[in-house]
Amino acid sequence: MEPAIVVSGLRVVRGGREVLHGLDLDVARGCVTGLLGPSGSGKTTLMRAIVGVQIVREGRVTVLGLPAGAPALRFRVGYQTQAPSVYPDLTVRENLGYFAAVLGVGAAEVARAVATVGLAGLEGQLAARLSGGELARLSLATALLGSPALLVLDEPTVGLDPVLRRDLWDRFRELAADGVTLLVSSHVMDEADRCDDLVLLRDGVVLTTGTPSDLRARTGEQELDAAFLALVDGAGRAG
Amino acid sequence: MSLARSRATAARVLRQLRHDPRTIALLLAVPCVLQVLVHELFASRAEVFQALGVPLLGLFPFVAMFIVTSITMLRERTSGTLERLLATPIGRGDLLVGYALAFAVVAAAQASLVSLLSFGLLGLESEDRALVVALAIANAVLGMALGLFASAFARTEFQAVQFMPAFVLPQILLCGLLVPREEMAGWLQALSALMPLTYAYDALARVSNGDLGGRLWLDVAVLGGATALALGLGAVTLRRRTP
Ligand SMILES: Nc1ncnc2c1ncn2[C@@H]1O[C@H](COP(=O)(O)OP(=O)(O)OP(=O)(O)O)[C@@H](O)[C@H]1O
Ligand SMILES: [Mg+2]
């Protein structure tokens, strides 16, 4: 099957500096792909390019068979930005209601998204008065509206407790089982272990890709944490 | 363009305002207080208030909506909600029309309240009160369009607030309210002719004098054109892709 995302030769310049240097990547359909890499390695920039909001210097990004950012994709791609992007002066329900109206979906979708992220009971609360983790979940809920075929989630579980993290990852696995493609960036290695595929970025290029067990085998490390460090450090010495 | 998305955007902007009752109170009360101040200031010269009252009534919404829109839009840019929205099917036009609808509603409330006060209690007179309120709403939409455009050049709220004196004060100084345009130096007249508020003032002054002739409708046409131009420029500054 054709991959959900094909990136080839992607170059991006931000603030006068090249931050992605001719990046190539395939992301399989119906899988959870984890995007890992040190801070500043270009994870958010790559996700922005895939969603079609990043100005690109060179290269091609194809999403679900269309050029990234194509109007038809805006109904089929859900994007959670790294910093929560919701209206602080609206309630949970009003925030989701607005994004639902923009996508042309109804109140049932709002209720479902609220349930998925575990915000039931807080629908009437102003976003400004939510806790950090609740705010992150509201931002995630806006990305889930409209049942997108591709979810691009930039550190969706930052600031969440272990129980919530587990529940959300259970939900991500269910979505993937239903055929949804998920690209999820994370710094947490026990989350990486729940991905089908991992992509390791470093300094704006793909350092390596593979399943969690591939990476373990390749580095001879049992812990993904150690494998990640070995790969990042190893590349540092080589390059 | 999608009317449903524009309507949803307008409703969202109004809901944001509703959660901020103090801003609503300020938007409604400040023009009334200012109008009373002007009335009292010229208590012994009623003809001055008769001359200033109608133009002021129409200019308050312009200033208020310029500020409110430039801050709202700047917040939308810096909070990431704009980036988030532009990754959804919403069109830039849908967003702008939504904003215009929402602020037109606020301006209608503002202008109605000031005109109720001015015509009802302060003894202001005008042939055509409905036309005054309609012009006030048109000015509000113009202020909104200019505020939207100006916000593209502000990176911080401090900068956005400074655009008020930079974009708005010169227009108020030169529109003819303080000094009749014919008495200005030639280069000031030329500058004044380039400023949309000049036509807003001229239209209001004409309605105030009961002069509903062709020049009034020319002013209105210029106002409409300036609003469309500012909205178009504002749309250009709303980029789906950013660096
Ligand atoms: N708006 C911007 N203007 C200029 N440079 C930027 C901008 N945003 C990010 N950068 C730079 O681009 C590089 C990649 O940033 P990016 O946000 O993609 O990293 P990241 O992998 O997501 O990091 P983190 O894990 O900390 O979120 C960084 O060096 C960063 O300094
Ligand atoms: Mg990031």
What does the radius of gyration of chain B come to? Answer: 18 Å
Distance between the termini of chain B: 26 Å
Amino-to-carboxy terminus distance of chain A: 34 Å
Beta-strand content of chain B = under 5%
What's the tally of helices of chain A? 8
The string of secondary-structure elements of chain A, in order, is EEEHEEEHHHEHEHEEHH
What's the gyration radius of chain A in Å? 18 Å
For the largest beta-sheet of chain B, the strand count, sense and barrel status come to: none
Q: Helix content range of the residues of chain A, please?
A: 25-40%
Structural class of chain A: alpha/beta
Number of strands of chain B: 0
Provide the succession of SSEs of chain B: HHHHHHHHHH
Question: Which consecutive residue ranges of chain A, at least 5 long each, have pLDDT under 50?
Answer: none
Look at the helices and sheets of chain B and give the structural class.
Answer: mainly alpha
Bound molecules: adenosine-5'-triphosphate, magnesium ion
Overall strand count of chain A:
10
What is the general shape of chain A?
A: globular
Query: Segments of chain B where pLDDT lies below 50 for 5+ residues?
Result: none
- What is the overall pLDDT average of chain B? 91
- Mean pLDDT value of chain A: 93
Account of the protein in words:
- The complex is a heterodimer of chains A (239) and B (243).
- Chain A is 36% helix and 25% strand.
- Chain A has eight helices and ten strands.
- In chain A, the strands form two sheets. Chain A has a six-stranded mixed beta sheet with strand order 6-7-8-3-9-10, with helices on both faces. A four-stranded antiparallel beta sheet of chain A has the order 2-1-4-5, covered by helices on one side.
- In chain A, β9 and β10 form a beta hairpin.
- The model of chain A has no long low-confidence stretch (mean pLDDT 93).
- Chain B is an all-alpha fold and 243 residues long.
- Chain B starts with a helix and ends in a 6-residue tail after the last helix.
- The model of chain B has no long low-confidence stretch (mean pLDDT 91).
- Chain A binds chain B through residues 13-15, 51-56, 69, 71, 74-75, 77, 79, 81, 83-91, 94, 98-99, 101-104, 126, 142, and chain B through 4-5, 8-9, 11-12, 15-16, 19-20, 79-81, 83-90, 240-243.
- Bound molecules: adenosine-5'-triphosphate and magnesium ion.
- The site of adenosine-5'-triphosphate has 12 residues of chain A, from α1.
